[in-house]
Protein 1
Amino acid sequence: MIERARGETVLLAVQDTTALNLSTHRHLALSRAGRGPRSATAPASQWLSEPEWQALWCHTHRSATPPAQPPSTRAAVRMIARLGGFLGRKHDGEPGMIVLWRGLQRLHAIATAWEIFTQARKVVGNA
């Protein structure tokens, strides 16, 4: 019985480590994509799902309706960083991993609420 419990514990630890690695990879890739030469023209939809970029746009711009086209990757990275506490002053440089991590955590909660309220709006018929 003890061996089985240890095996399950190891399996859970491996799953947690894998999820953490994927999450860290996304943060690193997103921070690099926001700095790249194509970031001004590449759409944020390459990195974010539709509800994520729509929720991000509406939250940042205090608007109820998102634009038809997603923002650029650079603009989306800046918006996510601002959610994480990045101030974006003249000499602050590019956002780092910590503010992007914090911003993506907040974005996840905002996007989840966006999806719930969007579905509720369709059910009620006020869309």
Protein 2
Amino acid sequence: MAKWNPLALKLLMWLMGVLIVAGSAFPTWIPFDTWFGITASVAGVAFGAGIMIAGFDPIGNVSWVRAVILYAILQVIYQIFLQISIGRFDFEAFLVAIIVGGLLLWLYPNKAELWMQGKGADMGSGVARSKS
């Protein structure tokens, strides 16, 4: 199973990037983003594209893996908040965040670099380079 982990990590990063790009390509029903001079859907497309590109070498692009894990955590918190505050809960988004976040934590080969605790760990330095 361990020999498939690098491929699974790449595919998971790429899939999450595609999901974020596709999910961000549609306008929201309240345009908060444009009121502040930005467009959330464009930002989402850029974020998703960055994740897809990083998916070719996730070990060398550890900051992007961290960003997806952060996104998954924020998505879970957001869905819980929505359920408590207005009674709306997107089960699919919640489930995808749990699964993707958990799989990234499980598949990433160098946990110390992921959490910036290892020797030589630097923000996005990619100390542990991919062997593919």
Protein 3
Amino acid sequence: MTGTTITVIHRTTPTTNQSGAGAGRLEFQPGGTVDPLPHYVPPRETADAGYQLNLISPKSHAYLNSSAADQPAQRRVQGEQAVTVHSRDAAGRGITDGQYVRVFNERGQFIARARVTDEIAPGVVMAPMGAWTKNARGHATVNAVNPFVFADLGNAPTFSDTRVEIEPT
């Protein structure tokens, strides 16, 4: 957020305000229209668009960041691009463990090897980020389907707010 101000309130005694904060503590409070209390923010993307699965794309275990993703040792540890899918979601789409699938939405697509398991929630798929496109099947990675918009607070990426569909290749 551009132009957001932060107010620093220094309390010297517990009785300087209503909260009763202890002596010498600092309170950071956003200024302007930012609500200082946490609250629910609905997802930007919903299943209404026709994409029934919510994609999360955490960091890869073998890559500190994408700069290491072209190193042979890291590529051997990480393996090729995979997508984890719940067994119920996979069965409904005719997907079996180890099969190549197309993960797609209106922004793009990528090819990944399906990892079918009950260790992920139904309706959610997971594909780690960090791989290089030159090493990926179809020369596309999970970033091909992630949104380009930033969160409303702090300009954080919104790559865990992505709806997709998957199908066998």
Protein 4
Amino acid sequence: MKILAAVLAALVVLLQFSLWLGKGGWLRVWDLDRQVQAQKDQNAKVQKRNVALDAEVRDLKQGLEAVEERARFELGMVKQDEVFFQVVGPRQAAEPKPALEPRPAVERRGQAEKKP
């Protein structure tokens, strides 16, 4: 009877080992689930960017307003007979920088003494 109990206990331990640590075990499933979730998050970000780019391409193909807007903001272009005013904010008072003080002369060793 003791031998049968020991064999059954060893079998349970062996099955638990393969369930938790073996190939296709719970740890591997947990790791793969985490990787799938990370990939889904990345796919969602890329999908949002693709939708925005698709809308921009459609707008550029169909209307001239988007082309004009890009020319104005990115290239700084203006229409013919149009006057461009640039408003500049007030300058902040610059603090005067202190003048550099002259460095004291350094005596060099080995020079001949000064002759009067």
